[in-house]
Amino acid sequence: FDPRHYLGTHSYGFPKTGPHRLRFLLESVKDLRETLKKKGSNLVVRKGKPEDVVRDLITQLGSVSAVAFHEEVRELL
């Protein structure tokens, strides 16, 4: 979870993620983790800037050969 997604917007100061959306996200992640565990896998969940968290996970794991990601599409003004 990137803390920057929970700050106010630049233009109007409204939260990017309100309490209802946050609850939905947390419940969805919890459900995904439980589903993966039933299939013999797991889900790593971290809080922080992705550029820091991913680097730390790669260092911790030590044998990473590839990293895939997607970038959020931002609206052009």
What is the topology?
Blueprint: H1 19-38, H2 50-61
Which keywords apply here?
77 residues; mainly alpha; Rossmann fold; globular; damaged DNA binding; DNA_photolyase_N
Commentary on this structure:
By secondary structure, the chain is mainly alpha-helical. It has helices at 19-38, 50-61. The protein has a single domain (3-61), classed as Rossmann fold (3-Layer(aba) Sandwich). It is globular and about 45 Å long.
Briefly summarize what is shown.
The protein has 77 residues and is mainly α. Helix content is 42%, strand content 0%.
Classification by helices and strands: mainly alpha
Work out the helicity level.
40-55%
CATH superfamily: HUPs
Number of strands: 0
- CATH class category name: Alpha Beta
| Uncertain stretches of 5 or more adjacent residues | none
Largest beta-sheet characterization: none
| Gross CATH architecture | 3-Layer(aba) Sandwich
The CA-CA distance between the termini, in Å, is 26 Å
Q: Mind telling me the C-alpha Rg?
A: 15 Å
The domain tally reads: 1
Mean pLDDT across all amino acids: 85
Strand content: under 5%
Name the overall outline: globular
- Examine the coordinates and then state which fold CATH places here, giving the name of the CATH topology: Rossmann fold
Continuous helix count: 2
Pfam families: DNA_photolyase (PF00875)
GO biological process, one term: photoreactive repair
Organism: Smithornis capensis
GO molecular function, one term: FAD binding
